[in-house]
Each structure stands twice: as C-alpha cells, then as structure tokens.
Predict the 3D structure of the following.
Amino acid sequence: MHHNPRRLRSSFWLKFGLDLGVVAVADLLLFLHLPGSSLGLLALTVVAAVVIARPGLARDGRALAALVAAVAFGLVLVDRPGLLALALFGLVLAVAVLSARVRPGETAWGWGQRLGIHWIFGLVGPLFDLLKLARLKRRRRGRSLLALLGLLIMPVVGGAIFLALFSAANPLISDVLDRLTLPPLSPETVLRGLFWLVIAIGAWGVLRPRWKRPILALPTRKSGRPSPALTTSITWSLIVFNVVFALQNGLDIAFLWSGAPLPGDMGLADYAHRGAYPLIVTTLLAGLFVLVALQPGSDTARRPGVRLLVIVWVAQNMLLVASSLLRTADYVAAYSLTPLRIAAMIWMVLVGIGLLLIGWRMLRDRSAHWLINANVAVTLAVLAGLSAVDLGAVAAAWNVRHAREAGGSGVELDLGYLHDLGDPALVSLVRLEQTTDNPDLRDRVAAVRSRIMADMQDRQRDRHSWTWRNARRLDRVADLSRDRPLAPPAPPAPPVPAPVTVPASTPLTSPAGG
C-alpha cells in the first residue's frame, strides 16, 4: 500500500501540533495544582485531539464505541476524579486508537498483549519517530544543510546588526531586549519540564499508536491417550474435596447461618472475621484445580461421575462464597462499613462468578479464550460501575443510618473515621446533625462537619481543584439547611485551672542580737 509522502508529513506535523496543544492545556489545568474536574477536561481534550488527528476512527464501529466510552469516563473524571476512572479512560482510548488494525473478534488475551506492547513502546515512541524523521530528511533531495545555512547567514546577521543599532537609538526596544532572558533553572522550572515531557509522551502514544501483533498464544494441552491412573486420582481428589468442603459448609450452616451460639468464648464477629478471606482463597484454589485438571474435551472431563462430582463441588464453593459474604456482613454489623470492605464483598462476588464460568466451561466444552473473555467482560462491567460510585459516601451513609446514636442497631458512630473520609461524609453528617436530639452528639457532629465543609469550600474556590460532585454536595447541604440552618459548633469549654498549692510559710526570725 503506497502512501502520499506529503500527506504523511502533514499528518505528522498535525499530530505534533495537537500534542503541543495537549501539553499547553495540561499545564494550564493541572501543573502544581490538586486535580479536580480539570482532570476530566484534560481527558476530553485528549479525545478531541485523537478525533482531529484520526477522523477515520468514527467510521469504525468498534473504535467509535470505544471513543464514546472514553468520553463517558472523561465525564466521570469531570464529576469525580479518581484513579479507577482514569485507568479505564486510558484503556478504552487505547482500544479506540488500535482498533483500525485489529481484526474483528480479537480475544481478550490478544487485546491484553496489544495494549501492553502499545503502552511499553509508547514510552520510547517519540524517540523512534525522531530517528525516523532524521532518516527521511537525509534521503530528501534538495538543498543540503550547508546550503541552507548559507541562505540564512545574510538575513540573520543583517537583521541582528540593524536590531542592535535600533536598540542603541530607541530605549523602548532596548528595554524589551533587556527583559528577554531565559527563565532561571529553578526546581519549579525543572519540575515543569518533566511534567511537559510526561504529558507529551502520553498524548503522543495515542496520537501515534504502535501496532504490534500478539506474540504469545495461550498454552494448550496436547490430547494423548487417556490415563486411567490420572482419572482415578482426580476422581478420588474430588470425593475427598467434597467431603472436606461439606464439613466446612455444615459448620457454617450450624453456626453462621442459623445464628446458634458458638462454643467457648468466641464471638460471632471473631468467627466471621477469621474465615472470610481464607475461604475465598480456598475457592480460588478450587477453581484453579478444575481449570488445570479438567480440561474440556478430555477423557476425565467427559465421565458422568466426574462431572457430577464437579457440579457438587462447584455448588459447595458457591455456598462458601455466600458464607464469606455473610461473614463480612456480620463483621460490618459488629464494627462499621468501609470502602475497602465494600470492595472485598464485590471481589467475592466476582470470584463466585468466575468459578461458575470455570464449571460452565468444562460442562459445555468451551475454549480458554471464551473463559478469559467472559471474566474480562464481567470485571470491566463491574469496574465501570464502580468508577462512577463513591464508595466513601455509601459507607458514610450506612454508618450514620445504622449508628446506635441514630437509633440504629449498629455500633457507636466513629466520628474520627467520618472525618478521615472527608468530602463523601458531608451530606450524611448534615442529616445526622439535623435529626439527632442529643445536644452533645450534635455539637460533636457539627465540629466534624464544619471542618470538612470549610476545607471543601476552600478547594471549590480554586478552579483547578473544583469538582462537579462536590458542587452538588454543597448544593444538597444548602437545600437541607434552608429550613433548618446549620448552627456553628459549640466553643470548647475553657480548661479548669489546676489548684494552686501554697507552701506553708516559715516564721520570720529576728537578726542575731535583735
């Protein structure tokens, strides 16, 4: 396929100009400032630059869908900047720019390699392009560098002479030339240069992506003669595993699910906390065993007895996942809810779905690519939803609603933790402050709320750290306090002075001889 050299050069310089524009926007929005909605504006700027540089992407269905997803994650970054939304934005934007040269129906395994190679080579892509540009210039016919310098000598030297004479004759020109100095090499200048370099390399990677074919195929097991010994070993293993899992599930049903008292001094919270994560590790090992030992289409996987044992074992593993979720819920009820515990429960659900997919793959003779594609699709769908949800606000609302002070069945409210949560806890604190009848609790809540609100208002006054979600939070607080204005927190009580101990006076003695 032949390309027009002039068109290629114009496309290169267009992308170069767009790259400089992205750097300028990033410097204006982000440099030396906490990222707010400005991070989302920069992301949308990068999407616009990609569309301008490569308008043909809009004619490719997959690339267009990825661009729409990139815009959606850019809007999420405008609303609530976060690392998860930023990572997903980079992922879908890379898929968009690579789609033109990727065959339809590419697997998640192949996409993973393409994206990894794209990001790795993107770090050195500008260097490769500079070397390629230098080679092209050496091949071009026409004036050599020496001839070009000869053409420039007269205008440059003559212009410098006349400018020096005008500077001596005109103080305005002299003052302007005196102020034309290079910026000092301060730490801020060095940091700004590094910031520009990082943004330029990142933007250049999506403006000029690197297309490389996947280099690693999925390992496949060669089908040999059936091994009776291996089949017997796997069958016995499944029988033993089912018996051991039945013991654990029976204990969970007897104590965890029924609510029966535990023997000894162990409480339900301790029982729940100690078992949640080890049980998930057990489920992962069970899935790995099914994945490795029972390949679809193998002689062992086709035996009805083995398939029945696998179905029972998968069902027991699903009960283990449900028990892990219940253990975590009991632990939350005994203590409190945190974003990390919400993420842990979501991860447990993903583990259960993955195990179901592994069992379904064996029963339906699906390929390894089908299993990877299904797991990646489920994981990305969950992560996309989480990128738009503030887990901190969910945790704060749950803790306030279930707090003992608010009439709930939970533990005492940890105001120190809500203060550490910061912005996500503001609306929940305002609601508690307005509904509680306890004046001491109201003062303590007002003290935490006022600090969070003052810090948020200070950041919202800065256009760089302003976020759309915090603006909506402040609007919600204003709506809640329209009929019931928020009172300032009570001043702290003055310290009680310590009693002063006066030493006993000693009698005065008269001078000697008095």
In short: Confidence is low (pLDDT under 50) at residues 508-514. The chain is about 70% helix and 0% strand. The longest helix spans residues 108-139. Residues 214 and 491 are 66 Å apart (CA to CA).
